[in-house]
Specification:
It is built from six helices and four strands; from the N terminus they run αβααβαββαα. It is mainly alpha-helical. The structure holds a DNA duplex.
DNA sequence: CGATTGACGTACG
DNA sequence: TCGTACGCCAATC
């Protein structure tokens, strides 16, 4: 393959296209949308949300999306999202280190040592409970 | 611009 | 069952 043209053409490559920006925003919003659907007094996991959105191996991105969850309207109940073991791995991202546990306690969820008690029963799987 | 770092989860020995 | 490796990918160093 021969590329014609003797000029040294320095093309400016956009760092991010509008489409990419849209998909990113869409992914974030999808995460937020699912989290808002979590019933009060129930919890789910980052992986379950990722799986539900079709990106089963990008559970980390769900956690990353939660980073901005505090500044999003309407409010996102981020405290209802824990890791797959029912551990409150995101507690340090709340206003105080005990805020997440307090919010869960308000909904009747018992937390001991950063672990959701009776996690298996309270677990809410969007892929199973929702059928979109 | 390459390396490192996570609110994670699965695979493998 | 436990520890390690790796995929994921935006952000940060």
């Amino acid at each position: 393959m021969v590329i014609a043209g003797g000029e040294n053409l320095l093309l400016e490559i956009p760092t991010m296209t509008a489409a990419e920006d849209n998909s990113l925003e869409s992914f974030f919003n999808q995460v937020y949308a699912v989290v808002r659907l979590i019933p009060k007094g129930r919890v789910t996991s980052y992986g379950a949300i990722a799986k539900y959105l079709g990106t089963a191996r990008s559970s980390r991105m769900v956690g990353w999306a939660m980073n901005g969850s505090h500044t999003v309207r309407p409010k996102v109940p981020a405290h209802r999202v824990v890791n797959r073991n029912g551990l409150l791995t995101g507690k340090n991202h709340f206003s105080t280190s005990t805020r997440m546990e307090e919010l869960l306690a308000q909904e009747g969820i018992d937390v001991k040592n950063d672990q959701v008690q009776d996690f298996k029963r309270l677990y809410w799987d969007p892929a199973a409970e929702l059928a979109i």
